[in-house]
Amino acid sequence: PKSDGIWYFHLRAKNATGLWSNTAHYEARVDTEPPVIQIDSPQSEKWHNEPIMQYYGQALDEVSGIDWNTLEYRYGDLEWKRFSRDVVSASEEIDGATYLWRDTDEIPHTAEADGLIFLVRVRDLAGNWGVSAPTILRVDGRPPKLTLISPTHPNQQAWYSNNQAVIIFQEDAEMSGISGYSWSFDQMPISSPLEIIMTTDNRLAFRIPSDNSWYFHLKAQDGAGNWSKTYHYQLNIDTTPPRAKVEFGNHNLIPNSEMRVGTGKLAISLTLSELLPESNAPKLYYQTQNKRRINLDLKGAGLHWEAITHIDMWTGDGTAEFFFEATDRAGNVGQEITDGRFFEIDTLLRKDTTEMQYVSDEIAQVTLSIPPGALKEDMRIDVDSSSEAIGSRIKTIVLKAFDADFHELSDATFRKPIEMTIGFPSQPTKSLKRIPQLFYSDGAMTHQIGGRIKDNAITARVNHLGTFEIVLSESVKNRIARGWAAPNPFTPNGSGDETDRTIFHVATRDNNVQFTIKIFDLNGRLVRTLENNNNVWDGRDEHGRVVEGGLYIYQIRADEEVITGTVIVVR
């Protein structure tokens, strides 16, 4: 035959007599072309994110027709395998289209594939095999896995002063590849972006709007349509250097002033604007008007730090300035003091003030309380101490007076007594039977001064500066229990009332004790002697003259036992 189809051969025969036979016919069916068979689902090279559960397609042979009993499939490297069921030999509509073959349970349900070849074939009734074009199966049901890195902010726990961030997204061996990314940026540690592709680039650069802990959130979609979980990256930003505020304790402030200090201990409080790393303590020092720099030893943690400094007349009066430096967690170096940067040092004691004035030296453990009207002129007082024990002497204090221009004054006396408190070291157990006594030395003689002892300190009233010593004396059972002068002070003006004389009250352990009272000025000169238990002093010397106003030292003596105290004469 010249072509495929049904052909007929027709034949007649003539005999010898010339007669023709009836026509005989022979049918010949010819089909040399293979059937056409195709796979419509799944589509070749298309990525799927779920197992392929259904296969279907069409087959056509217009000549001899399809022998559906010969329909076979080949899956990957497996041998051809004939279908035993689910074969459609008549047209069936699936999803709005007409298909002639389908399978849902014999072909393996492909859960993961990257280039697996799938074929189907069928014979026509003439025995010709028709083979489909290969379908490349690709199935990726696993969501993408990502790694986020930042070349600008590599440590998610660290703080950075750089607010220009770069985030790079790295995929971990993704089968179907990455189609794109969705991201968001906020201050919430856990949030998720929408599942819409916002970028196909695996690198993102952006500016962080403000100081704080920020979070970058990222999801990725692969070629099969799988969305990854949300990945988070923390960015800690601090572009602001630390600042500080300086404040003072109240005990050393000059009355009626906020930032003006006199002599003594100055408690300084430093408050930071932000926390610092544990290894980065702040630094603080102040510089006085004479350019003297005084470093401060700060103690504390977190936002609050404390320091103690000692102000004396040599620190330098005038305006002093604090200088501060601190490095925060992001490496910002701060030097700004927002409040309390400047303060005034004023160690000059003024004679015309109406307020109490104080000189304090915590190192020497000396405090002077100076009442109004006690000074003869404006002055400064310098305190020098020695706690070196020499024999029974356990402490020496030297008090000197200077004028406003730092020239030493030769007259170091006061118009009225001032109160002086001197601390002394604790004594060992073997010295507990020895009593600390306060003495004043004028350079030629040493005079014992009465005073109150409390908590390792002696308090006495004096009207003269100079050298004072604390000496341990033996504690014995005294014949004189105690002695004191009252009124004290007194004014010997001849008025005849009880304030123009003082009475020395002497408490003895025996009514038969005889005592003598001697009165000295601060230069050690004997002024008056009261004998035979006479205990009234009218403020006159041995010649009947009224003495000058000031502080006088009295000694109450019974045999070798002496009690010393002071009495003040006011003129």
Mind explaining what this structure looks like?
- Helices cover 0% and strands 50% of the residues.
- The chain is mainly β and 571 residues long.
- The protein has 5 domains: 36-139, Immunoglobulin-like, CATH 2.60.40; 146-237, Immunoglobulins (Immunoglobulin-like, Sandwich), CATH 2.60.40.10; 245-345, Macroglobulin (MG2) domain (Immunoglobulin-like, Sandwich); 357-474, Chondroitinase Ac, Chain A, domain 3 (Sandwich); 480-569, Immunoglobulins (Immunoglobulin-like, Sandwich).
- Strands 4, 6, 7, 11, 12 and 13 form a 6-stranded mixed β-sheet that branches. Strands 22, 24, 25, 28, 29 and 31 form a 6-stranded mixed β-sheet that branches. A 5-stranded mixed β-sheet has the order 26-27-23-21-30, with no helix packed on it.
